[in-house]
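This part of the workshop introduces the protein records we will be handling. Each record describes a single protein and holds just a pair of labelled lines. Instead of coordinates, the fold is spelled out as a row of discrete tokens. To make this concrete, we reproduce a full record directly below:
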Amino acid sequence: MPLAAPLVKVNRCRSLGARVVLHGNNFEQASRHAHELAASDRLTFVHPFDDPVVMAGQGTLALEVLEQLPEFDAVVVPVGGGGLLAGVATVVKALRPEVEVIAVEPAHAASFTVSFDAGQPTRVPVATTFADGLAVACVGENAFRAAAKFVDRAITVTEDEIAVALLELAERENLSVEGAGATALAACLSGKLAHLKGKRVVIPLCGRNIDPDTQQHAFWRGWTARELARESASHALSALMQNNEYE
């Protein structure tokens, strides 16, 4: 894992018996070191998102959804490296081709969105994001090839939008979700998917390994962003009323 990996994730892996090696400042540097360790210690390297078997395993999420909810109109899927998206999109389009598949990622790590527009995996700069589990500079080649043909739309969300989603999940549902898992809800709350209003939408809340300090910071930022939005809406309504531009 990178040196900046959330402590909660490090400790969770160690509690399950893993030997955690912290190396590098980002996913790419940690991945290169993992390849070196695999070669020197004769270990099997299992890619976290670009391995076809891993993607197939992640696709079982869609099978479980279809068992619980046979009919729905859209599924909004968080994407970083693209493994979860590839698995879910493949299953959904095979069994329910009419369902809209929407990919969403943080604007601070928008590789899939850029790649989707370019038609090929494209490297992008990555900035700090609440969705650290999606902070990948380049979508996986296998994952992109599997997912791109099934994705109907790809969008990004801001850090404020992710923070608001984390806050809403905590306040309304008493759920502790990490930033990566909250991006799908962030997209829906942002208004960028207004065409889904009134439809049946599946939003996977995947991952709850969020650092407590990060969570508190996200809650503060989400509350601030939400209050500013309400204040802005209130001012806009007052202006309309003053100008008699209402019925």
The chain has a mean pLDDT of 92. The beta strands are 74-78, 100-106, 153-157, 201-202. The longest helix spans residues 212-242. Residues 82 and 143 are 5 Å apart (CA to CA).
